[in-house]
Structure formats: C-alpha cells, structure tokens
Design brief:
By secondary structure, this protein is α+β, with helices and mostly antiparallel strands. The chain has helices at about 25-30, 35-40, 50-55, 80-85, 95-100, 160-165, 170-175, 225-230, and strands at about 1-5, 10-15, 15-20, 45-50, 70-75, 105-110, 115-120, 125, 135, 135-145, 150-155, 160, 180-190, 200-205, 210-215, 240-245, 260-265, 270-280. The protein is about 20% helix and about 35% strand. The strands form three sheets. Strands 1, 2, 3, 4, 5, 6, 7, 10, 11, 13 and 16 form an eleven-stranded mixed β-sheet that branches. A five-stranded mixed β-sheet has the order 8-18-17-14-15, with no helix packed on it. Strands 9-12 form a two-stranded antiparallel ribbon. A hairpin with a 3-residue loop joins strand 17 and strand 18. Helix 4 (about 80-85) runs antiparallel to helix 5 (about 95-100). The longest helix has 10 residues, at about 80-85. It is globular and about 60 Å long. The two termini are about 35 Å apart.
Length: about 280
C-alpha cells in the first residue's frame, strides 16, 4: 500500500487500484500504531480513479508528512565511512568515523523540521558558503510513536562535504538548513520488512545529461533498520511519530552539485523521488 499527499486530497495505491480521498490530518495519521489497518478502513468508500487521472495527480505532490521531525543516521555503510574519513583527514577527524562505524552506538543526528523539507519535484538547496555539496540517497523509515517501523520512503539528505570535512563539529551547519532534505514521493505502508536485496539508485542530471550514477543495496547497510530506530527512541519521545534516514552507501567523489542539477533517487518497492538544485 502506498499513500501520496496531494494539495487537496489523498491518493492511495493498493494492488493495481488507485483511490482518491479527502485531505487527512497527517499528524493524527502518523500517530497511529496500526497505520496500514487504519488506512484500509478510512479508504473503503474513496473514489476509484482511472490511470490517466492518476498521472496528472502525481505531477503535483506534497511531502508525505505532517509536522514530524526527520532524524538521520550516519556512517552506516562502509562506503560512507571511507568517504567521511577521507574528507576529514586534514582536520584530524578521520578516526571518529572509523570508530563510530564499529561502535555499538550509531551516529544519530537531527536533520530537519517539516518547514525545512522540500516536496517532490521542487528545489532542495546547497549552501552559498559551501564548495562541495552532494545529495545522499537514503532509505527512510516511517516510525510510530512507539518506535515501530510502519513504512518506508525515499530520502534525500543534502550535505555539505566541505563544511563537515573542515571540522566534524560543523555537522549541524553541513546538514541542517532551509531546503536541506526531501522525502517522497509516497509512503510505502507495510507490516513486512523491506527486502534486504532492495537497490537504492542515485542519478544526477546536468543540462539534461546524466552526470553521475551510483547504486547500492540494503545488504550493505551495517545496522538493521529496527536497531537504528531503537537507538533513536532510547531517550526521545515522538507523539506524532517521526522519520529516520538510515544513511547512505552512495557518495559521489570528485563531484559537486550545481544550481539547476536534477537529482533522482529510486528505491525498489518504494518509488522515485526527484528534485532540482537551488542555492541559499
């Protein structure tokens, strides 16, 4: 089951059928501990719509969230560990990333409030005071108030590698700013874990030409998604649920984003999230 947030309603995909319903209170919705069952009940009398109408509706989506916080995990793939060690070598911070990759406690950090999250098809930002910027494609968990994984979405954790690489203590500035994240295009609501063989793919287009492509599989994720969720909830409460980005295994080398680039993130079973780049 997939749920899409529209400017004036809610689109639900189940099996080969799309149904259209009213706007929902997404704070209340994601506060549910039985999201799939609740959506099934709510959508019983929604309007079945034809495929041609679905296409037009999917062209104008909002971020599938209410006022939930987005958190993120770092250094959960070996590729990320290596990249972070390289970029922070001169600052003397390389050992930190090696140690956290092998530690029991993961790196977790606050990523974004809802106001900092860009909708599918809109702009995500790079910073004017940064010289090296990349998108980070991440499987993102939809977590209930009790910390249960209720679904998944695509996440774009925009990052300034030059700012973080200068000093690891600059992480909040490298990660948290207006337009620093995007999620979507939908929430995949399921009671089953996503397949570990699922592939995450990143494509970056410049002047309509493919400038970078990379992919990884969830088999490369060092920590299980529920393990990361459990750590996040150890000393935190989220009455309306939250989102947790699980880290990236794709880090473009010798590449930095430019204004006008288009970023496309695809995750098997979930969908494709597209955004373009602006500068703030």
């Amino acid at each position: 089951m997939k749920i899409y947030k529209l400017p004036s309603g809610t689109l639900l995909e189940s099996g080969n059928k799309f149904v259209l319903g009213p706007q929902l209170d997404w704070d209340q919705l994601l506060a549910s501990e039985n999201l799939r069952e609740e959506l099934s009940e709510k959508s019983k009398n929604w309007e079945v719509i034809p495929e041609e109408r679905v296409t037009s509706l999917l062209a104008n989506l909002l971020s599938p969230m209410g006022n939930q916080e987005i958190w993120a995990a770092g250094v959960t793939y070996f590729r990320s560990r290596t990249a972070r060690m390289e970029e922070s070598q001169d600052a003397g911070g390389a050992d930190f990333y090696d140690k956290v990759y092998n530690a029991d406690r993961p790196e977790l950090f606050f990523k974004a409030t809802a106001s900092r999250v860009s909708a599918p098809g809109t702009a995500v930002n790079i910073r004017k005071d940064s010289s090296w910027d990349v998108p980070e494609p991440e499987l993102t968990l939809v977590l209930s108030p009790s910390g249960k994984i209720q679904g998944y979405t695509c996440g774009n954790d925009m990052s300034s590698r030059s700012i973080e690489g200068e000093n690891p203590l600059y992480l909040p500035q490298a990660k948290v700013y207006a337009g620093c994240a995007a999620i979507g295009p939908c929430l995949l609501i399921t009671n089953k874990p996503i397949e570990e063989t699922a592939t995450i793919r990143l494509e970056i287009f410049r002047d309509n030409v493919l400038a970078f492509v990379g992919e990884t599989a969830l088999t490369q994720l060092k920590r299980k998604p529920q393990e990361l969720a459990d750590w996040l909830f150890r000393a935190n409460t989220f009455p309306i649920g939250c989102f947790l980005m699980t880290g990236t295994g794709i880090v473009p080398d010798d590449f930095t984003l430019e204004v006008g680039d288009k970023v496309r993130i695809g995750i098997d079973e979930v969908g494709v999230l597209e955004n373009f780049i602006e500068k703030i």
